[in-house]
Amino acid sequence: MPTAWFLTDYVRKDRGGRPGRVCRMNQFTAQINADGGDWREVEVLGGYAIVKVRASTATLTTITNTTDFQRIPSAFTTLNTTLSSLTAAQRTAILNRILAMGYTTEEITAVIGGNLAGWRTKTLGQLLRFITSRRRRPRYDAVADAIVMDGIVEACTSVDDVDATITE
């Protein structure tokens, strides 16, 4: 069964009167399970998630075509795949999402490179390991009735562990 990587976010889901959040991929759990598939996420900076999904091609297509899900191009299924086939538009889309997460242009340039040529020598694993370098602990702000992402900086779950768990 095929696998795919996605970038998405978390949505509020109150649990027993307590404000909480779930990964947006949760909305596809029943469909993924019906396929005999599975998914795992890594929470990253800005309240976003990197998610690896194993599901039918039809389910992966449905997720890809759903608002608020950005599929990492299908050519990039393994962590050792180089980013050499990224188009400028694909790189820009990924770069914009990384910036929206809260990473700076300087951080991205230092680790991944500042232009498409620099990205071509990197692997998907290097890109995802950079994105999973940190996150902020969420907290509930009762006054604003909102979950905010300004807590302490924490390490993320290993993208390598997620990759090893969700296999074709």
Description:
- It is a single chain.
- The protein is an alpha+beta fold.
- It has one domain (3-165).
- It has seven helices and nine strands, in the order E-E-H-E-E-H-E-H-H-H-H-E-E-E-E-H.
- The chain has helices spanning 29-34, 57-64, 88-101, 105-111, 116-120, 124-131, 159-165; strands at residues 3-12, 21-23, 38-44, 48-54, 70-71, 135-136, 139-141, 146-148, 153-154.
- Strands 1, 2, 3, 4 and 5 form a five-stranded antiparallel sheet that branches. A two-stranded antiparallel sheet has the order 6-9. It has a two-stranded antiparallel ribbon with strand order 7-8.
- It is globular.
- The chain starts with a strand and ends with a helix.
Please, what is the average pLDDT? 92
Shape: globular
What structural class is derived from the secondary structure elements?
alpha+beta
Share of helix, binned: 25-40%
Question: What is the CA-based Rg, rounded?
Answer: 16 Å
Keywords for this entry:
single chain, 168 residues, alpha+beta, five-stranded antiparallel β-sheet, 9 strands, 33% helix
Strands, helices and their partners?
Elements: E1 3-12, E2 21-23, H1 29-34, E3 38-44, E4 48-54, H2 57-64, E5 70-71, H3 88-101, H4 105-111, H5 116-120, H6 124-131, E6 135-136, E7 139-141, E8 146-148, E9 153-154, H7 159-165
Antiparallel strand pairs: 1-2, 1-4, 1-5, 3-4, 6-9, 7-8
Provide a brief overview of the structure:
The chain contains 7 helices and 9 strands, in the order E-E-H-E-E-H-E-H-H-H-H-E-E-E-E-H.
